[in-house]
Design goal:
Length: 78
């Protein structure tokens, strides 16, 4: 999902550690043909633009029963 300054990614696996999550995001973006490098656990450079990485967990299923969905939000920063 893309907007002008924001991208939302849903990964196949769930990550509980910010370092592992940011590494997985970088690998995911590289596998899609992007130029990507990690600056720190919350900042990446994607196709020569700087993004801040945040995570949001969404409950799935009826009555919040089921596997939660983890979304990674990349917001472009200056």
């Amino acid at each position: 999902m893309l907007s002008k300054n924001k991208m939302v990614i849903e990964l196949d696996e769930r990550y509980f550690n910010q370092e592992e999550l940011s590494n997985a995001v970088v690998q995911h973006l590289i596998s899609k043909g992007n130029s990507c490098e990690k600056i720190d656990h919350y900042t990446i450079i994607l196709n020569n633009k700087k993004y801040t990485l945040t995570e949001k967990t969404i409950s799935m299923g009826v009555f919040n029963i089921g596997v939660p969905l983890q979304r990674v939000i990349l917001k472009e920063t200056k």
